[in-house]
Amino acid sequence: MLCLQTRQLTYRFRGGVALEGIDLAVPAGAIYGFLGPNGAGKTTTLRLLLGLLAPQDGEILVFGGRLSGSNRPKAMRRIGAMIESPAAYGNLTAHENLLLLQRIHRCPAARIDEVLSWVGLSDTQGKRAAQFSLGMKQRLGLAMALLHGPDLLILDEPTNGLDPGGIVEMRQLLQRLNRECGITFLVSSHLLAEVEKFATHVGILHRGKLLFQGSIDDLHAHRRAVSEVRLRTSDDAGAASWLRQAGHIVRRNAAGLTLPHLDDAGIEAIVAGLVGSGIGIHGVAVVQEQVDLENIFMDMTEGGSCREAA
Ligand SMILES: Nc1ncnc2c1ncn2[C@@H]1O[C@H](COP(=O)(O)OP(=O)(O)OP(=O)(O)O)[C@@H](O)[C@H]1O
Ligand SMILES: [Mg+2]
Q: CATH classification of 2-222 is 3.40.30.10, yes or no?
């Protein structure tokens, strides 16, 4: 079941297109990493989802219903969000900030201590939010987003500016909330390596277009599929000629030979064939060049439109 879905979501600023026909699909229970470099359109998408901008084209479905008209208030009660920097009052303590929100949401007062404990801010006592470290401010923002007990949390770069320890803490906190409270997360980031550590699903946005969407396993499979096989042999010229005759595409340079992706059986076959032809194998390596987001973007943009994993 999908918790959140968009169909052909489009938004244009005066300066140009920010989003072009985005079809997001966030499964219930997922931690969906919404990836993209600066200016890709992540914040614009999240603002549209939260009704902070009005879609110019396309539609948004939340919990199976359209996010519009009389449906909107009901759906919004089930969503919590932290977009860009958290909006806490600096002259109030964490507890006081939450007290204000508790009155708005009309949720039980006991919920304040509960969310403060979740985010590890129970012991901040009289400290005002303005005196908080960045990590504490992010955690207060999360507590504010969590207070009314949402089923879906939308977080815009929640680890931005945090040190490595703070990033790990935030990641573990989101995973715990997902596991123990069943909250679905849509979390934007520009760091693939970070998202891979905790997301179950990813969407990759580039210049307003969704280039890839699927589970983290689908992304890994895609990356494997674009890996290369590198060979060092006793006779590279002879090996290249044998491989070409066997129907392979081979590039040769001073470091050896490079072939496009082969699975294990394919590697076994070429090694056996070359050895059988009297060519010694000095090294075989499977290299995944697409290790960072930029390389993935380059590879995917060459391929054109969004690749949706089944
Ligand atoms: N208020 C605005 N007016 C005009 N253009 C805007 C506005 N807000 C965003 N844009 C443009 O829309 C595009 C997407 O911006 P957006 O903030 O959604 O990107 P982002 O993926 O969140 O980037 P970042 O990683 O830097 O936060 C950019 O080209 C940006 O310049
Ligand atoms: Mg942004």
A: no
